[in-house]
Amino acid sequence: MKKLLFQIDTDPIPATFDTVVAYDGGADHVTALGGISPANVGAIVDGAIFTRAPKEKKFTAIFVGGSNMAAGEQLLKAVKKKFFSNFRVSVMLDSNGANTTAAAGVACLVKSAGGSLAGKRAVILAGTGPVGQRAAVMLSREGASVAITSRTIENARKACDHIQASFGIEVEPIAAPELDDRARACEGAHVVFATGAASALLLRESDWKANSTIQYMADANATPPLGIEGVDMMDRGADREGRACWGAIGFGSLKLAVHRACIAQLFEAADQVLDAEEIYARAKAMA
Length: 287
Ligand SMILES: NC(=O)c1ccc[n+]([C@@H]2O[C@H](COP(=O)([O-])OP(=O)(O)OC[C@H]3O[C@@H](n4cnc5c(N)ncnc54)[C@H](OP(=O)(O)O)[C@@H]3O)[C@@H](O)[C@H]2O)c1
Prior knowledge:
By secondary structure, the chain is an alpha/beta fold. The protein has helices at 16-24, 42-49, 69-82, 98-112, 130-141, 153-167, 179-185, 205-210, 252-266, 276-286, and strands at 4-9, 29-33, 60-65, 90-93, 121-125, 145-150, 172-175, 191-194, 216-219, 236-240, 243-246, 273-274. The protein has two domains: 4-97 and 254-286, Methylene-tetrahydromethanopterin dehydrogenase, N-terminal domain (Rossmann fold, 3-Layer(aba) Sandwich), CATH 3.40.50.10280; 102-246, Rossmann fold (3-Layer(aba) Sandwich).
């Protein structure tokens, strides 16, 4: 029985990145469709769930992608709404690569910490984007108390409200528009994860060096200037002044491996929904 993946993308043109990883993850055939929304996904889901016998449904799966995580979340909701009884197939959400990127970064931080972040304070710099919000969920599930910064308190609150509504997790919003504000936001933090837009410098080297509590740092930005000055994008747990540091390329190989492994996992059973927590569990096992 051929493993069929329907890659449904909320952007007009489906991401070739996700198509390549889908094949590398073990799909025999990938149908990549762009411009998919809750309004037009119904027939696609029907075709996936009504065609194969119950034991064979696991060989059909759905991947939700696109550059917009909020649109991806709505599309996942619409896909799940079509499922009933055992008329369902497994589905994975990784819009913007946010789940796999956040999962790999957090899993590497946890690995550096010896397997647990229980009781630690984690600050996610510029955590209002899709990667930052997913990382907040994962760090919180690891037992850390989590705060996210934004240039505006409105954005920070909006992101925290969204996380609370989607995952039932409390995250502290912090307004930190300038470098000095972000240095202050990191006071008392043990973990710092920078998840800002490409080329946005978020934390100066002199500021983290002057901070006596930070133990673990990761930066998702691979486009210079990087998010955390003095952390190299290739860092793989590098010791810098006693802090374990992970750069975007350093944990990027795990991100790709996790993405592939999750695609393979989709074809193991027909009842899986791979979102932040499931993808993080995979990353943690692989780190
Ligand atoms: N390795 C990978 O495979 C991979 C995959 C996906 C993403 N990434 C990288 O991961 C990072 C996060 O991705 P994302 O899509 O979540 O990011 P994003 O949505 O583009 O940006 C995250 C936040 O950065 C803040 N920001 C934007 N410009 C800024 C500036 N000039 N100064 C300070 N803050 C600024 C914004 O927050 P406020 O407006 O609230 O301040 C924004 O919500 C990016 O660097 C991206 O390139 C890597």
